[in-house]
Design brief:
Elements (H helix, E strand, L loop, with lengths): L2 H14 L4 E2 L1 E7 L2 E7 L2 E5 L4 E7 L3 H8 L2 E6 L5 H8 L14 E3 L6 E3 L4 E13 L2 E13 L6 E5 L2 E5 L1
Antiparallel strand pairs: 1-11, 2-3, 2-6, 4-5, 5-10, 6-9, 7-8, 9-10, 11-12
Length: 166
């Protein structure tokens, strides 16, 4: 990559950091373990039928798992769950038992984990996946949607930091 290309990437990164993104955790049961990662590119796609999407790095374990497993769970993190987001976004966390330090409940629909105390949960089944640049866009049909504590806020990722929103 040339210096001009690097400058363009840096300029894009700085501008895109101004787009607040909801901070969520996506989990999937795969090969005898529950795999999880923090995502901040999430969007509601459709009301009828209910669908949402998230983006994940194409070479991540989660992307690999989703090639073999169609069902997954997305937890919308509450405003006080920054440490959960940080842990599940950190490189070098163990492949197995990465949720030992995260209170959670296993979803009967997906086998994935619902992070306890989250603002909302969605159990989904992949209906489409698209490669785009260095990421995969995963669209899920919603099997179940549950709101958490009505008083809790959520987390957003903005300008490289997690920020609580109430």
């Amino acid at each position: 990559m040339t210096a001009a290309d690097e400058q363009q990437v840096d300029a894009y990164r700085a501008a895109a950091a101004r787009l607040p993104g909801g901070v969520c955790v996506v989990t999937v049961a795969w090969r005898g373990s529950v795999h999880a990662t923090t995502v901040s590119s999430v969007a509601s796609v459709s009301l009828r039928p209910p669908q949402l999407l998230f983006c994940v790095h194409a070479d991540s374990r989660l992307a690999e798992a989703l090639e073999e497993t169609a069902r997954w769970t997305l937890s919308v993190l509450a405003d006080d769950q920054g440490p959960v987001a940080d842990w599940l976004a950190s490189y070098g966390r163990p492949v197995v038992d990465q949720l030992l330090r995260v209170p959670h409940t296993v979803s009967a629909l997906t086998g994935g984990a619902r992070v306890d105390g989250a603002a909302a949960w969605f159990d989904c089944e992949t209906v489409a996946a698209y490669e785009s640049g260095d990421h995969r866009i995963v669209v899920g049909g919603v099997l179940d949607a549950v709101q958490g504590d009505a008083e809790s806020g959520s987390l957003v990722h903005l300008r490289g930091r997690l920020r609580p929103v109430r």
